Structures are given as C-alpha cells and as structure tokens.
Amino acid sequence: MPEYSLVIPIYNEAANIPELYRRLSAVMDQLEVPGELILVNDGSSDRTIDLLRDLSQQDRRVGYVSLARNFGHQIAVTAGLQQTKGQAIIVLDADLQDPPELIPEMLRLWRTGFQVVYAQRTRRHKEKWLKKLLAFVFYRLLKILADVDIPTDTGDFCLMDRQVVDLLNAMPERNRYLRGLRSWVGFRQTALLFDREPRFAGEVKYTLAKSLALALNGLASFSQVPLRLSIYLGLFSAALSIGMAGLVFYWRLVTPRSPLNGTATIAIAIFFLGAVQLFSIGILGEYIGRIYEEVKGRPLYTISEIKQSTDV
Ligand code: UDP
Ligand code: MG
Prior knowledge:
- The protein is an alpha/beta fold.
- The protein has helices at residues 17-30, 48-58, 73-81, 103-111, 129-145, 162-170, 178-184, 208-222, 225-253, 263-296, and strands at residues 4-10, 35-41, 62-67, 88-91, 116-124, 154-161, 189-196, 303-307.
- The chain has two domains: 4-223 and 300-307, Alpha-Beta Complex (Spore Coat Polysaccharide Biosynthesis Protein SpsA, Chain A); 225-296.
- The protein has an eight-stranded mixed sheet, with helices on both faces.
- Strand 1, helix 1 (17-30) and strand 2 form a beta-alpha-beta unit.
- The site of magnesium ion (MG) has 4 residues, from loops.
C-alpha cells in the first residue's frame, strides 16, 4: 500500500502537466516511502486526458480518473479522494500555485500527530485585485457567520489523514465546500504558512462566477444566519412603521399641515418593503434549492475512464 496519495484536480491544464509531473516526481523520488499520484481529469477539452494516459503508462505510481464532463473543482477533488489508497492524502492544484516542495514538511507534521495540515496563504502573487479583495472579504465574513471555525485564507491545498478522508468520502452532501467540511470533522489540525505562487501556465479556470458560487456554497453550507436575516429585517421594518405611525399621529394632532402627504412617501415605503420581501424570498430560495439538490440524490459525478496506480 502507498504511504501517501497525491490528488490533483485538472481542468484544461495540458500546458502545466509536464512541469507539474516533473516537480511532483522529483519530490516523490526524494521521499523514502512509497506514494501514488492520482490525477483527476475534470472533463477537460484539451489534450489533458492523453497526457494522463501517457503518464500512467510511464510511471506505475500514477493513476487517473476521468470524469464524464466538467463537474467543478470540489467534485473533482472528491472523485480523487475516493480513489486514494494512502494513509496520508495531499490535495494540490495542477497549476503549481501550491508548491509540491511543501509536501515533505506536511508529511513530517502528519507524522508528529496532526490529522490535518492545511496550507495557509500569507501572500498571493499576481492574482487579480478584485479576486483578492473578494476573497479577503469573504473569508472574514465566513469566519463571523460560520458555525465551525474555518481558518481564513486556506484553500484546498492540504494534507489529510486516512481517517479524515474516509469521513469525507462517507458524506453524501452534494454542495461540497471541502475546506469547510475538513474543519467540520475536527481532529488535530495545524496550519503551514506559504506564499501562493503565480500560475505556471494557462488561464485561471475559476471564473468570477465559479468563485462566487463556491463562496455562496460555503456560506449556505456552514451558516444559517442568512435565513435568520429576514427575521431581523422584519423586526426592523416593524419598528420603523411603529415609529412612523407615532410620527404621523403627532403631525396630525400638533402641526396644522402634515409634511407626510405625498405619494412619493408611499412609493418609497412600498419599494422598501418589496425589496425586503424579495431579498428574504431569495435567501429562502437559495436554501430550498440546496435541499432540492440533496434530495434528488443523484451521484456526485460520472466517470468515463479510470486507471489505478499499480506500484504498491
Ligand atoms: N479545476 C477543476 N475544475 C474546474 C475548475 C478548476 O478541476 O471546473 C482545477 C484547475 O485545473 C486547478 C484547480 O482546480 O488545478 C484550481 O483552479 P484555478 O487555478 O483556476 O483556480 P485558483 O487557483 O485561481 O483558485
Ligand atoms: Mg490556480
């Protein structure tokens, strides 16, 4: 059995794969214990799958799973985790933003008794300022709202013990926010600080829309505060209208000409309440949509091709 498994989600990263393999295999050669490399093709439309087939022919430590279409990063990682055989499982991106050279240090920390070693970004190089700003705000918002303590500025780059991965694999939920689930399981966890490198080659696959969807997922899966928001908003508008009623009474009784007799005031009040109601329905819809997704119980992904690593 391999001692460790590396899981790499890959979506159209043909330009990165040769260099990725070069750096990963250098690290693997240098480690004394046997390991496997599991490459997950998340429905790429470029040459990725050919490269994966070639690598697994060349190197028996390499296995791959090819998903039948693009299922998204979190599901691709999930598919990879479910194929692992190692006692320690390390997840990293294909674009070399997560330096493979940290793997030996992660394994060392794991051997000292940590079940989760998550890499925490101290700096991000060459990423769009909007993405950095949104990430900064989101991670801090999540920290305030989430029921579990999800460390800020951590991504999916981490090492997890077999025990943790078995637990994750047993979770049926579809809207997987892995970095949250990883905190949720508990156990002894520690951070490993690192500078996030720029992408080696190719374009970012996480579009702004995908990042926002992931962020929403994180919030909805780990917090019910948004649901409670309509209660607060309701209380707020109730207080406001009671205050207004008092004011109107006062104006009617004391001042001869009430300043509150225009249609504009009514229109503003209607729009305000309409906005509050639509906003609350939107939040409800977000959660109901998630319930519907879960209830359908479709498989998380479909596999079109798979090859196990064989060097054990
Ligand atoms: N990825 C994937 N499926 C997708 C989008 C991305 O498997 O639908 C992979 C991608 O190939 C990369 C990793 O997820 O290995 C992170 O993607 P990216 O580098 O674009 O995101 P960022 O580093 O900006 O978060
Ligand atoms: Mg990246």
